[in-house]
Write a structure and sequence with these properties.
Layout: E1 2-4, E2 20-23, E3 47-51, E4 66-70, E5 72-83, E6 100-102, E7 108-111, E8 119-129, E9 135-143, E10 152-153, E11 155-159, E12 165-166, E13 172-176, H1 183-188, E14 190-194, E15 199-206, E16 209-214, E17 222-228, E18 234-236, E19 239-241, E20 245-251, E21 255-260, E22 265-270, E23 273-279, E24 295-298, E25 301-309, E26 324-332, E27 339-342, E28 360-361, H2 363-371, E29 378-382, H3 401-405, E30 414-415
Parallel strand pairs: 2-5, 10-19, 12-20, 21-29, 27-28
Antiparallel strand pairs: 1-3, 3-4, 4-7, 5-8, 6-7, 8-9, 11-13, 13-16, 14-17, 15-16, 15-30, 17-20, 18-19, 21-22, 22-23, 24-29, 25-26, 26-27
Length: about 425
């Protein structure tokens, strides 16, 4: 729809060229003083076209929102979305902002992100007349298509969560409730921003799990912000993301622990300095199940008290090799049942490897490690003949950077010290 300038409608929308207010209410309000009908102020006035046009209904939320000016330049674009019948539970975050980019001569603006399904959308653009320099305001109001029940992509879980403090190896793990087919679009809707320079890439473990890993360990003592701009992204045919999310967590001190099977020691370094040297006893290695896995692991979760059950690794409790033990200060580092933990019964700490696969520690040492471990701290095991699989737990650092990128749908790295993502989130209008 082409809208001709109405100078009297211009108001101060600010100097920025992007912004949104996500109002989860049932109310509907237009932009006061706007002229969606396009009443003109003369033949030489700037003309603006907003797509989708005013009055459109059931617009696909993944189609690109555009503003184009003829006879002038675009000064500002504001996008307001209201979800009918909703209740605002939280204040909008940066993840809800529909930012956009101007072309070089400032005559065309295209939204960076998709729109929320089932929303009443008001687009307000300010354009400057090329002859008079006067600014005028233009408005288009339309509604987006609802995401149908059973076709609504939602976030099922994520690690870490907002407020967490994590180790320098921590990945970002996103689980969806439905399969994702348009993986590149979903990848490009998830923006990771760090205070310190790095680059990272997404990898898909399956159709419902995406993992972001940086190329190098995170620099310690910094904040990470993640904008999951999923609302409106077509994840599969007719399946749309319905909600945006923002995650905020911190990377703490750098702590890297190394267990050497040959020396029966665990050395802990913090910020490059050795802080602990513990005697340990790891897997006795007479069977594969009882061999501690070598490689770069990450600490995943911890329990002050835990029942260790051999049946969870395929060995019945009532068999000759079975066991069921209550242990203290357990820190998990794989999905194959490996934990560091207190083992006061083991008299061979620092001398021999006699465990069922878990690094046994003295009670005081195990407690210290339990109390001083963050989720995502690297834990490296050396000199066993069982290499940990890259997808056993969070052992993603087992893959080279090139191998990791091969598991991305885009194949493109993403700079984390800058906003934006490598590619397109919008769907094809012809689809």
């Amino acid at each position: 729809m082409k809208l001709t300038a109405n100078p009297s409608a211009a108001r101060g929308l600010g100097a920025g060229l992007a912004g949104t207010v996500l109002l989860l209410t049932a109310a509907c309000s237009g932009s006061e003083g706007a002229d969606p009908a396009g009443a003109g102020s003369g033949a030489d006035s700037v003309e603006v076209t907003i797509t989708p046009e005013d009055g459109s209904a059931d617009v696909r939320p993944d189609l690109p929102l555009k503003v184009e000016a003829e006879g002038g330049t675009i000064s500002d674009v504001k996008v307001e979305q209201k979800v009918a019948g909703g209740e605002q539970e939280e204040e909008p975050t940066e993840a809800d902002e529909v930012t956009g980019a101007l072309n070089e001569d400032e005559t065309a603006w295209v939204a960076d992100w998709t729109l929320t399904p089932g929303a009443e959308v008001t687009v307000t653009a300010v354009a400057k007349d090329g002859d008079s320099g006067e600014e005028s305001e233009f408005t288009s109001e339309f509604t987006t298509l609802q995401a149908e029940e059973g076709s609504r992509l939602e976030l099922q879980s994520n690690f870490p969560t907002s407020g967490d403090t994590v180790g320098v190896g921590m990945p970002l793990i996103i689980d969806f409730d439905l399969p994702v087919q348009n993986k590149a679009r979903v990848e490009n809707s998830m923006e990771v921003v760090s205070e310190q320079p790095n680059e990272g890439s997404w990898a898909w473990l399956d159709d419902q799990t995406a993992v972001f890993r940086p190329k190098e360990y995170w620099e310690p003592n910094q904040k990470i912000r993640v904008n999951l701009r999923l609302a409106g992204v077509e994840a599969a045919d007719g399946v749309y993301g319905v909600e945006n999310h923002q995650l905020n967590f911190e990377v703490g001190r750098e702590q890297i622990s190394t267990i050497d099977s040959d020396t029966h020691r665990m050395v802990v370094e913090r910020d490059g300095e050795q802080v602990k040297d513990f005697p340990v006893s790891i897997g006795r290695a007479d069977t594969r199940a009882y061999t501690t896995t070598s490689g770069t692991h990450l600490t995943m979760e911890k329990y002050e008290e835990l029942v260790m059950d051999s049946s969870t690794v395929g060995v019945p409790v009532d068999s000759p090799e079975g066991y069921k033990l209550d242990v203290d200060y357990a820190v998990r580092f794989s999905d194959s049942g490996e934990f560091t933990h207190s083992a006061p019964w083991n008299n061979s700490l620092g001398e021999a490897n006699l465990s069922h696969g878990c690094p046994n520690m003295a009670p005081g040492d195990a407690k210290w490690f339990y109390e001083n471990s963050y989720m995502g701290d690297p834990l490296i095991v050396e000199n066993t003949d069982r290499e940990v699989e890259w997808d056993n737990g969070w052992s993603y650092w087992q893959l080279s950077w090139e191998e990791w990128q091969e598991k991305s749908a885009t194949g493109e790295p993403d700079r984390t010290d800058d906003t934006g993502t490598p590619g397109e989130v919008h769907g094809d209008p012809q689809e």
